[in-house]
Each structure stands twice: as structure tokens, then as C-alpha cells.
Amino acid sequence: RPRSWPGQEVVDRILRVGCDVVPKAGSDQDSLDWRLSFSQAERALSGQVGEKARMTYLAVKIFLKMNMKNICPFLKTYHLKTIFFHHMESKTEAYWQDTDLENTSKELLDAMLMSRTMRIGHCPHYLIPSINLWGEQILGEDAKKVPRQ
Q: Nearest 10 degrees: CA dihedral of 82, 66, 119, 115?
């Protein structure tokens, strides 16, 4: 897919490394509940985030924790990270150099709260976009709390 970030070498490395299959947290040890873990890929992506982008992410994370926890209880840090990675794809290096922290933070908040993602209740997984992180398979009963237009 077309993107400004991450570089092709990082994408190639992520594809080579793949993902891990790990037991689901809270599952019975004898259970066959497993999930795909992309922690190595997410670590590689995080390593490609510049200082201002990282500060933007942290500012928005703090804002959401302080102001949105009661309004959007379904909103987790993983959702923010996923939306942040999608947001990073559309931003050039020049954007991060030329735009101040206040505006980069506002734009990420807009991408998160005012975008189509929130309006239709669809948060595509960064590495497997066909998976909706706000769908019932992922959130269970909490999926009903996601606003729909």
C-alpha cells in the first residue's frame, strides 16, 4: 500500500520475522485459546518513530487517559498505537519537522476521535487490516459501547 512510513527495509524485515502464536492471556493452561502476537513487528515499527512523533503519541495517550477514559471505556492504548501507526503512514518527514507538537497532537486526536474510524466503529489492525479491533470478536460485549453513526 502507498505510504510515507515505514521504509521498505523495515517492511521487508517485518515480513521476514513474521509473528508468534502465543496463548491468550487469562486462558486455562489446558485450553486451546491462542492469538497472534506482532510484538516484534510493533517493536520494529516503534524504532522507526522520530522524536516529535513519539512526543505526539505520548501527549495524545496522556490526554486520552485523563479525559476520555469514562467517555470511551473501550478505547485502549493498543487502539491508539494502531491508529498512530496508520497516521504515520500518511505523514512525511517534512511534516514532522515543520509542524509543531500542538498541531501534530491535534491532528492525531482528530485522526482518532473525529475520523471515519470512530464514526463507523471500525479500527483496522495495522498489520492485518481485515481485523476490526473494535469488532465483537475482539471486544466482546464492549463492542456495543463503540459509537456508530
A: -60
Per-position DSSP letters for 75-140, written without gaps between them? --HHHHHHHHHHHHHT--HHHHHHS-HHHHHHHHHIIIIISHHHHHT--B-SSSTTSBTTSHHHHG
Q: What is the largest CA-CA distance in the chain?
A: 54
Angle between helical axes of 39-46 and 8-17 (0-180°, round to 10): 160
Instruction: Tell me the C-alpha distance between 22 and 85, whole Å.
Output: 23
Q: Give the global pTM.
A: 0.85
Per residue in 59-87, pLDDT (tens digit) is 999 998 999 888 777 788 999 999 999 99
Question: Are the CB atoms for 80 and 57 separated by under 8 Å?
Answer: yes
Tell me the sheet residues that pair with 89.
Answer: none
Q: Is 26 left (phi over 0), alpha (psi -120 to 50) or beta?
A: left
